[in-house]
Amino acid sequence: MELSRKKELVFCLSAALLAAFALQGAEIPAEHEHWRKGCPGVVQIDERGIRFLPKVSGPKAHQWSWAWQDVQRLELSERRIVVVTYEDVRWRLGADRAVRFRADKGQSFVAAYYLLRDRDEVRLAALVADKVEQTLWEVPVKRLGRIQGSQGYLKAGPARLIYESISQDYSITWKYKEIQYITLLAEDRLAVATAAGQYVFQLKAPLGERRYDELWRRVQAAQGLSLGLRGPGRQGVW
């Protein structure tokens, strides 16, 4: 009981500190990645949008600024941010422009995630593990990959599903409304489908009918769909 109270206290303190920081905005020393080398500067993120201010001058010193309405998707990991815009790139046959920034050594974009995690106007692809979301339950898993997988824990919270990898580079957090559907491919295989693709996890311990139903219902409710019966069998596809 005492250990549980300590965990709850640490969780509350962490949430309060991160919330206080988020109100101030984030400023992270970073490099704008070019085809060859890059240019140093500072990434600024606040409620208005995202900006990059170079520290050098010259033809390679690019200054960028986007309001959130002009950002199609923001991919955020611990060391990198990718800003996908609505601007077409002619030489890439009309593909959307993606501008990449890498945090300087010893710096991180994680604090920027907590600034943006609850902002609906930001289309955020969070490639980090949310440390503030309350964990209702967790199960050890292996995330399967085309060549090599990663290992960690799948954690369900009130508003988010989190894959926390032992290697931070592979972590990911989804709001339930970002998940199109979940399905059990087998007794030890759980698939999470999103607009970005399908993620398959090998379960190291039984998920259990109750937890699977709870997870399915949270996804269903986030989509604004009826909380009716699941589809045939245990697939959970609707």
3D architecture notes:
- With 238 residues, the chain is an alpha+beta fold.
- It folds into 2 domains: 126 residues, PH-domain like, CATH 2.30.29; 86 residues, Pleckstrin-homology domain (PH domain)/Phosphotyrosine-binding domain (PTB) (PH-domain like, Roll), CATH 2.30.29.
- Helix content is 18%, strand content 42%.
- The protein is built from 3 helices and 15 strands.
- The strands form 2 sheets. The protein has an 8-stranded mixed sheet. A 7-stranded antiparallel sheet has the order 12-11-10-9-15-14-13, covered by helices on one side.
- A hairpin with a 6-residue loop joins strand 11 and strand 12.
- Helix 1 packs across helix 2.
- The chain is elongated, with a radius of gyration of 20 Å.
- The termini are far apart.
- The C terminus is likely disordered.
What is the number of beta strands?
Answer: 15
Into which percentage range does the β-strand content fall? 35-45%
Q: Provide the helix percentage.
A: 10-25%
Give the N-terminus to C-terminus distance in angstroms.
Answer: 40 Å
